[in-house]
Amino acid sequence: MLFIHCNDTLRSVEILNFAIARPQPVEVAHRCRPIVRKILLPLGACFTPHSVVPSRRPQKKSPAKSSHPSPVPRSPTENLSRRHESDSFSPAHSHKTRRLLLKLSGETLGDSSNHLSHPIIQRLAHQIKGILSPSLQLGIVIGGGNIWRGAPAADEGQMDRNTADYMGMLATVINSLALQDALEHAGVETRVLTAIEMKNVAEPFIRRRALRHLEKGRVVIFAAGTGHPFFSTDTTAALRASEIGADALLKATKVDGIYDSDPRINPRAQRFQTITYGDALRRRLQVMDSTAFSLCMDNKIPIVVFDVFREGNLRAAAEGRPVGTRVIAGE
Q1: What is the pLDDT of residues 20-36, one digit of tens each?
Q2: Count of CB atoms within 10 A of residue 273's CB?
Q3: Cα–Cα distance between 99 and 85 in angstroms, integer?
Q4: Which of 53, 87, 97, 148 reaches 20 to 30 Å from 71, CA-CA?
Q5: Computed from CA positions of residues 93, 77, 210, 168, in that sequence, does the dihedral angle turn out positive or negative?
Q6: What is the rounded distance in angstroms from the CA atom of residue 314 to the CA atom of residue 235?
Q7: Other CB atoms within 10 Å distance of the CB of residue 242
Q8: Is 308 helix (H, G, I), strand (E, B) or coil?
Q9: SS3 readout for 48-92
Q10: Residue 11 to residue 9: CA distance in whole angstroms
Q11: Cα→Cα distances 194→132, 149, 199, Å
Q12: Where in the chain are the domains?
């Protein structure tokens, strides 16, 4: 048995390690392990018996080097680009999921006696719920004409155009909140995103946040227009459709399509089943403004104009079946 007396702790550790690490039979080394542990632990030394005592298990031979070259690790920029490709969503990347932008005019939410009619809003909410599915993502833009129209007030010289348009943006927020409430009562998870920040009312519009809501299956209502005066809600719809990569813009109105003249004035007015962006711009048709048409034309987003109050029209438009008037790119 080995006895060591030394006042220097570090020196004692060195001597003990030397004694255990010396070449000797495995049985002797393992019998010495309790003695070494008993001496070192009170000293507070950091000791791992496996580091000085030979293992009973035979060491495995290192595998022979493969003739195949080892894989080259991806660079951080390559991983980042691949992550962005997987996170980003574009309808062109998926043949199963469709993304649509529904444009509702403000007049569709009210009637002759009420700016906001709860039965009408509830019926619209149930129609919207009926077209939803795991393969459909839906964004909505609502006008504010049932409450306030800024352009006529400014044209008549009653107020400044900027002020009048901001009032119209607030009207769209009122309509959006009303539709959100009806949709949630119908069991549809909905988010309102406003172009003008209103923390206590709705979320601010952030494109990535909107895309995330859509990917989670929520209906997203875009309120407060573009946040700038001199732009209509039709332009807002075209802009948001472009930003979220919508497959089509569905314009729901009280008329069943686009006519060559006002059908309420001219009983012989002819309805177009299909019309190109260029023809609609040249004819200066008043269904949508030229800015909205141009945005959709530049981004190749088809427009479907239809009567939302006719039963089954909304579903037909969402499924791509013939309904109303379809605005497409020319040959």
Answers
A1: 455 555 454 555 556 55
A2: 11
A3: 18
A4: 87
A5: negative
A6: 21
A7: 17
A8: coil
A9: CHHHHCCCCCCCCCCCCCCCCCCCCCCCHHHHHHHHHHHHCCCHH
A10: 5
A11: 23, 18, 9
A12: 9-52, 92-328
Q: Read off the pLDDT of residues 214-271 as tens digits, 9 standing for 90 and up.
A: 999 999 999 999 999 999 999 999 999 999 999 999 999 988 999 988 888 888 999 9
Report how far residue 280's alpha carbon sits from residue 295's, in angstroms, rounded to the nearest whole number: 13
- How many residues in the chain? 331
Task: Quote the DSSP letter at residue 310.
Answer: S
- Is residue 44 helix, strand or coil? coil
221: its two tokens: 């209502």
Do 235 and 151 contact (CB within 8 A), yes or no? no
Measured CA to CA, the distance from residue 143 to residue 216 in angstroms comes to 25
Tokens of 300: 């190749």
Q: How far apart are CA 34 and CA 24, in angstroms?
A: 17
Q: Tell me the two tokens of residue 116.
A: 């906001």
Residues with Cβ within 8 Å of 259's Cβ and at least 6 positions away in sequence, in order, are: 269, 270, 271, 272
- CB neighbours of residue 214 within 10 Å: 22
In this prediction, residue 226 carries a pLDDT of 97
The answer regarding whether domain 92-328 maps to CATH 3.40.1160.10 reads: yes
CB 304 within 8 A of CB 326: yes
Q: Is 163 exposed, middle or buried (0-12, 13-18, 19+ CB in 10 A)?
A: middle
